[in-house]
Specification:
By secondary structure, the chain is mainly beta. It contains one helix and four strands; from the N terminus they run αββββ.
Length: about 80
């Protein structure tokens, strides 16, 4: 997300993030693209065969990019 700066083209953003999950017209010739990400990790292990570890973590984030005249004007992310 840090690589997307104001003025970047739609083609650059699509090449970096892939196709957006959704697109919406925000009025006044502006468009917002949204990507929804979910990362899941599983960890298992044992310590001296006495303690077992089985941990599952899941993180989600939504990235938004607003365009005006085919160029980025704002980028933000919501966690969780």
């Amino acid at each position: 997300m840090e690589r997307v700066e104001p003025g970047a083209s739609k083609e650059f953003v699509a090449g970096l993030f892939g196709p957006p999950t959704a697109k919406a017209d925000s009025g006044e010739g502006r468009e917002v693209w949204r990507w929804y990400y979910r990362r899941s990790t599983n960890r298992t292990g044992a310590f001296l065969f006495v303690f077992a570890l089985d941990k599952h973590e899941e993180d989600t984030a939504t990235v938004f990019v607003e365009f005006a005249d085919e160029r980025v004007v704002e980028v933000w992310r919501d966690e969780g």
